[in-house]
Amino acid sequence: MAIETAVFAGGCFWCMVQPFDSLPGIEKVRSGYTGGHTVNPTYEEVSSHTTGHTEAVKIWFDPEKITYAELVEIYWEQTDPTDAMGQFQDRGDNYRPVIFVADEKQRQIAEQSKAKLAASGRFTDPIVTTIEDVKPFYEAEEYHQEFYKKDPTREALEMEQRLAFKLANWQQD
């Protein structure tokens, strides 16, 4: 079994773990920081908007059980792809939506998926989620890991906002 990785940024990493964590074929999901210029940043440094990093999740998966394309589709359902400077109540460059691709195959899948979403007509605003080469991923402090299990009440409030967005914007044709 050859495990692959996917890295997605879509606002607060607390909300990005749970949708992937329990799927068949997912080996591990970790919260962290990526895309910036500071080595081994802390949460406080990333929150200061001086590191260039965004909050993200790194997902280890078995491609024979779940494909990268399926993960990208799940990613779109967790984000507002029309908001370049944050997600929902989380504002700032450290919450920008990014799909970080590991190779040309992932880039092609992500680009095709983004184009399909843009052509779907589901959003009146343009899709602004960027697709960038993977950068070093720094795991967040342990208290950020599996947050949805540690603080289910706060996680439920975060997820409620995302669900309201989905209901308002992901109307099927």
CATH names the topology as Peptide Methionine Sulfoxide Reductase, Chain A
CATH superfamily: Peptide methionine sulphoxide reductase MsrA
Report the major sheet.
6 strands, mixed
Per DSSP, the total helix count is 6
**Top-tier CATH class:** Alpha Beta
The CATH architecture can be named as: 2-Layer Sandwich
**Which structural class should the secondary elements be placed in?**
alpha+beta
Counting DSSP E segments of at least 2 residues, the number of strands comes to: 8
Strand order of the largest sheet: 7-6-1-3-2-8
- Helix-residue proportion: 25-40%
Q: Residue-averaged pLDDT, rounded? A: 84
Order of helices and strands: EHEHEHEEEHEEHH
How would you describe this structure in keywords?
6 helices; Met_Sox_Rdtase_MsrA_sf; Peptide methionine sulfoxide reductase MsrA; Peptide Methionine Sulfoxide Reductase, Chain A; six-stranded mixed sheet; alpha+beta; 173 residues; 22% strand; globular; peptide-methionine (S)-S-oxide reductase activity; single chain; oxidoreductase
Walk me through what this model shows.
The chain is an alpha+beta fold. The chain has a single domain (4-169), classed as 2-Layer Sandwich (Peptide Methionine Sulfoxide Reductase, Chain A). It contains six helices and eight strands. The protein has helices at 13-21, 43-47, 68-78, 104-119, 147-150, 152-169; strands at 4-9, 26-34, 54-61, 86-87, 90-91, 98-101, 130-133, 137-139. The strands form two sheets. It has a six-stranded mixed β-sheet with strand order 7-6-1-3-2-8, covered by helices on one side. A two-stranded antiparallel ribbon has the order 4-5. β4 and β5 (90-91) form a beta hairpin. α1 packs across α3 (68-78) and α3 (68-78) crosses α4. The N and C termini lie far apart (38 Å). 33% of the residues are buried. The model has no long low-confidence stretch (mean pLDDT 84). Residues 5-154 form the Peptide methionine sulphoxide reductase MsrA domain. This is Peptide methionine sulfoxide reductase MsrA. Pfam families: PMSR. The active site is at 12.
